[in-house]
Specification:
Helix content is 58%, strand content 15%. By secondary structure, the chain is an alpha+beta fold.
Length: 72
């Protein structure tokens, strides 16, 4: 049940990517998720491999698919 009480780092990173318009720096996401920039970078790398996040510059990431685009 603990996992339901607190969101994972991955969920928190995705939440902040969706909430902040445009590209977001890895360090900003790490701070928002309460983790280190290195760990956030590993999480973001996994999300890029899965196609959920796009790397748009050095340390800059954005969601690769807009939720509204999927619903249409």
């Amino acid at each position: 049940m603990e996992a339901l009480d607190s969101p994972s780092v991955t969920q928190t990173v995705l939440y902040h990517l969706a909430r902040i318009p445009g590209a977001v720096h890895r360090d900003t996401l790490a701070e928002a998720a309460g983790t280190t920039p290195d760990y956030a970078g590993r999480i973001l790398g996994q999300l890029v491999k899965r196609g959920r996040v796009a790397r748009v510059g050095r340390g800059l990431y954005k969601l690769s698919v807009n939720v509204r685009d999927e619903e249409a």
